[in-house]
Amino acid sequence: MSEGWTVAIVTCSDKGAKGERPDTSGEVIRDYVTGRGMAVRGHRVVPDERDQIEAALVYYCDVERVDLVLTTGGTGLGPRDVTPEATLTVVERLVPGIPERMRAATAAVTPTAILSRSVAGIRGQTLIVNLPGNPKGVQECLEAVGDVLPHALGVLSGRVRDHGPVHHRHEESKR
Ligand SMILES: Nc1ncnc2c1ncn2[C@@H]1O[C@H](COP(=O)(O)OP(=O)(O)OP(=O)(O)O)[C@@H](O)[C@H]1O
Ligand SMILES: Nc1nc2c(c(=O)[nH]1)N[C@H]1C(S)=C(S)[C@@H](COP(=O)(O)O)O[C@H]1N2
Fold this sequence. Notes:
Elements: E1 6-12, H1 14-17, H2 24-34, E2 39-46, H3 50-63, E3 68-72, H4 83-90, E4 93-94, H5 97-107, E5 120-123, E6 126-131, H6 135-145, H7 149-157, H8 165-174
Parallel strand pairs: 1-2, 1-3, 3-6
Antiparallel strand pairs: 4-5, 5-6
Helix pairs in contact: 2-6, 3-4, 5-6
The structure holds adenosine-5'-triphosphate (ATP) and ligand MTE.
C-alpha cells in the first residue's frame, strides 16, 4: 500500500465496548495498515448501536478527515448487527465492488463469508469499508481488497487520475 494514507479504525462490538473481550480484530487492522505505510489516526470501540457507529464514522470523515475508515464487526445477521445500516446512513456513494470481492474471494475458504452484509462507500473524500468481526475474517478480507485500496484512495483524494487498465493498454499499444 502507498505511503502516507491516514486510517481510522471503528470496532463495533458490544463485548468490546464493555471491556469483556480484547479487540484483537482492531489490532489485526492496525498491524495490516501500519505494515503498509499507513498511519492510524484514531481507533474507537463502540457498542452495536447505530447512533454511536454513525457518530464515529462522521467524526473520522468530517473532523479528522482521514482517507480510510475500516470498521470491524456487526455485519452479520444477528439482531444487533447494524454496522452496514449505520454506514449506509452516512455515505454519499457506494463502492459495491469492494465487499463483493471480499465475499467472493474469501467464501472459497470460508463459506460463512457470504453471511457478512458488509458495505463500502464514500463520505466526502473518505472511503469507509466494513469488515467482519472475527480476526481471521478481517485478515482475509483485507488481503482480498488490499491491492486496490491505494488506487481507490488516490482517485478519491485527487492525487491520481482515474485511468484504469484499458487506458494503460491503449497507451502501450501506441508504443
Ligand atoms: N473486536 C473483536 N476482536 C476479536 N474477536 C472478535 C471481535 N469481534 C468479534 N470477534 C469474534 O468474532 C465472532 C463473531 O462476531 P460477533 O460480532 O457475532 O460477536 P458477538 O460476540 O456475538 O458480539 P459482540 O462482539 O458485538 O459483542 C465473535 O464470537 C468473536 O469470536
Ligand atoms: N473472510 C471471512 N469473512 C467472514 C467470516 C470469516 O471467517 N472470514 N466470518 C463470517 C461470519 S461467521 C459472520 S456471522 C459474518 C458477520 O460477522 P460480524 O457480525 O462479526 O461482522 O461475517 C462472515 N464473514
